[in-house]
Amino acid sequence: MSEKYKNKYRIPSARAAWWNYSWPGAYFITICTRNRNHYFGEIQDGQMILSNCGILADVFWHEIPNHAKNVELGAFVVMPNHLHGILILNGDGGTGGTGSMVETRHALSLQPQPPQPPTQQPPYGRNIAHERFQNQGKNSISSMVGSFKSAVTKHANRLEIEFGWQSRFHDHLIRDDAEYQRINDYIENNPMNWKEDRFFK
Predict the structure, then answer these.
(1) Which end of the chain is more exposed for a tag (fewer CB within 10 A), N or C?
(2) What is the pLDDT of residues 72-83, one digit of tens each?
(3) Half-sphere exposure of 95 (CA within 13 A, CB side)
(4) What angle do CA 167, 169, 172 make, to 5 degrees?
């Protein structure tokens, strides 16, 4: 039920009361593009063909373990208008996620950056990916996803690629091995099942 705060309705937090968010765990992450526009590419014959922006999303996601402690990547896929991935927190220092299938605003503010000189490097090079991450060492799901989203946005803007994120993202705490396997299979088969996907339009 919605509650009022300063005469405005708000949705109460859906954080799981039984879960300590400093504990290690695996989280199923879903992030959508603004208005679910197909910025990341298209599905052809059951395979995802990445656009330049899709390549940025793919590379920066794989950079996450280089900028946060004690995190591993599970299955991951970039789709035309969203991406799915599993983040596994497996050590001390992680502050966990935000709850079970709740929409979360990322905590990272987009700080203005000074103009960058022209570069001959490819738009998706590892060295650029490394430079573009912020909040290094932060281990909350929100800070990791926020840094990832910021990196993709800033680099797309720098390359004058039209792009935008939905302001929120979904995270879901994976509770057991069976659920992990089901989500893993869903992610890996997502391109083949695109026309049945709820994000398809």
Answers:
(1) N
(2) 999 999 999 999
(3) 10
(4) 165
Neighbouring residues of 18: CB distance < 8 A, sequence distance ≥ 6: none
Nearest Cα to Cα of residue 112 among 153, 162, 69: 153
Other CB atoms within 10 Å distance of the CB of residue 96: 22
Residue-wise pLDDT for 99-138, tens only, equals: 333 333 332 222 333 334 334 444 444 444 444 444 444 5
Among candidates 140, 54, 155, which has minimal Cα distance to 98? 140
Q: What are phi and psi of 67, to 5 degrees?
A: -130, 5
User: How many other C-beta atoms can be found within 10 angstroms of the C-beta atom of residue 127?
Assistant: 10
Q: What is the separation of C-alpha 106 from the centre of its chain, rounded to a whole number of angstroms? A: 10
How far is the C-alpha of 51 from the C-alpha of 55, rounded, in Å? 6
Q: Which residues contact 4 (CB under 8 A, 6 or more apart)?
A: 10
Residue 189, C-beta contacts closer than 8 angstroms, at least 6 positions apart: none
Read off the tokens for 89: 């927190």
